[in-house]
Design goal:
Helix content: 40-55%
Shape: globular
Radius of gyration: 19 Å
Distance between the termini: 45 Å
Order of helices and strands: HHHHHEHEHEHEHEEEHEEH
Strand order of the largest sheet: 1-9-8-2-5-3-4
Number of helices: 11
Amino acid sequence: MRDSRLPPFSRRLLHPKYLFTWCGLGLLWLLTTLLTWRAQMALGRALGRGSMALLKSRVRVARRNLELALPELSLAEREHLLRENFESVGCAIFETGMAWFWPDWRMRSLTRMEGTEHVDAAAERGQGMLLLSAHFLTLELNARQFGLYRPGVGVYRPNTNPVLEYAQVHGRCRSNKYLVDRLDIKGMLRALRQGDALWYAPDHDYGSHASVFVPFFAVQQAATITGTATLARVKNTVTLPCFTLRDNRGYRLIIQPPMADFPLGDDVQDARASNRVLEAAIRRAPGQYMWLHRRFKTTPEGVVYRY
């Protein structure tokens, strides 16, 4: 059953300053409702390629990330991956609309689930499930699709635009229970103790606070938060890596077996272990990862800023 903690509609959302936001959401709803999936993906790829001329600073960040993370690739290979990545950015616009607006039956028509037996086993034992995920550009679909099998709890950053906040909370709760602010650690712990599945993506650079420097791809000192192990230490909790990858047939929701010997109780070793899992998943579809984020911006003392 879905949780009732959804923001109510209020008259202030109709203020004229939000007109363009409503128009954008309306256009997204119209396109994702009327167009076929293949048409949306074709249009998304075209928009993504076109956006490279407008989002030059993000292109530079993504190019630098690929250079830092995947130095084994040739320049031509990284440039090809960069273009593929921005095509995926364009597709993500439509995938957000799909996740927020599509009915369950249409969402299921493009979803192939792998590893649901791990969810069943944890549920039978009454265990909380920490869904270890990453910021793939399909992340909106990931939580929505998992919720089709077993409604869970999402971790998110509230939007400062109240219309977008209203839309994203209602959209993300179409097949899930409720959302928890990413700063609400007590709320996350409570969800796990109650036997819920908690979606969690610790792969971004959140600064040096509560972080350790461990390898992530070819960067040997990448700031990595220790919150994954903190949550995994909740009594009777298992950590299940969970990702959604796009292919030419739709989407694969991949739920992997529980991480063995995790957490160990050592922040560095636990961060290394979670990064290895995330890196392996990203390498399966590197063009679908959010390389636009300055993942390696925080550096230890003595290391030059990487951007």
